[in-house]
Design goal:
The chain contains ten helices and seven strands. Helix 1 links the parallel strand 1 and strand 2. With 253 residues, it is α/β, with parallel strands linked by helices. A seven-stranded parallel β-sheet has the order 3-2-1-6-4-7-5. Helix 1 packs parallel to helix 2 and helix 5 packs across helix 7.
Length: 253
């Protein structure tokens, strides 16, 4: 499996030294692809100093404006978190998550997201993730958040360990749907829900689409399955519209 099959994504990193330390951790463990989402300062001399021999990783690093850009073209997405999240997310221990990432990276590029030092990843930034990754800390401490570079080091080590353990590829060779394909599915689904008058009936009336996104992300749809669902949605639209009225029809998959 090429090192470029696993993408490390740092979101909103405020300290350039952490970028350099993360690059060094990647280099130590054989990872090459680093993507930075809205870093506060990069390039920066402190990042170069902390990289300490991983200058090539920094030189190849891409800077983008959004998580969507950072994970473009990926299949499996994992996101690190130190905070307790609700039950709608699947949460894996870092060792189990590493095995899944290595396995999935054998059929399509995979990405691991790391949040900003003070705030971590927002709920919006977590949306494309299939799983959340937790790094265990002592139950005797109330402070369970790791420095972002330390978190990258631990995840990178577990990824290297999983590769050495001979993790097998998924049984299906069909790649998981990319974030772009999932976004088009959600847009199509929202359009059909609006057309048939399906609304959020909860008191706040704001959580329905988020819940749908989360259970579909947990389902880990492949590209064929997304095409089936979009074909079904298009069939619903065609049955509801008068013959010859195709002005607002979604593009078929």
């Amino acid at each position: 499996m090429p090192a470029s099959s696993i993408r490390i994504v740092l979101v909103g990193t405020s300290h350039p030294g952490n970028i350099g330390a993360a690059a060094r951790a990647m280099k130590n463990m054989g990872l090459e692809e680093l993507v930075l989402v809205r870093p506060k300062a990069f390039p920066h001399s402190e990042a170069t100093a902390r990289a300490s021999g991983a200058d090539d990783v920094l030189a190849r690093a891409r800077v983008v404006d959004s998580v969507a850009e950072a994970i473009q073209g990926c299949g499996f997405i994992a996101a690190t978190t130190s905070r307790a999240r609700d039950q709608n997310f699947r949460v894996l221990d870092v060792r189990d998550a590493a095995e899944r990432i290595v396995s999935e990276a054998q059929r399509a590029p995979a990405a691991v997201l790391f949040g900003a030092e003070r705030t971590g990843l927002t709920n919006e930034e977590l949306e494309p993730a299939h799983v959340l990754v937790r790094i265990p800390t002592s139950p005797n401490t109330a402070y369970c958040s790791l420095n972002v570079a330390m978190a990258v080091q631990i995840v990178a080590y577990e990824l290297l360990r999983a590769q050495g353990a001979g993790v097998v590829a998924p049984s299906s060779t069909v790649p998981l749907a990319t974030p772009e394909e999932m976004a088009r599915l959600y847009e199509h689904l929202q359009q059909v829900m609006d057309e048939v008058g399906f609304r959020d009936r909860t008191q706040s009336g704001t959580h329905l689409m988020a819940r749908i996104r989360r259970f579909l992300q947990r389902a880990e749809l492949d590209q064929n399955e997304v095409n089936i669902l979009r074909g079904f949605l298009t069939a619903i639209q065609n049955r509801r519209r008068p013959a010859g009225n195709h002005s607002d029809r979604s593009n078929p998959p």
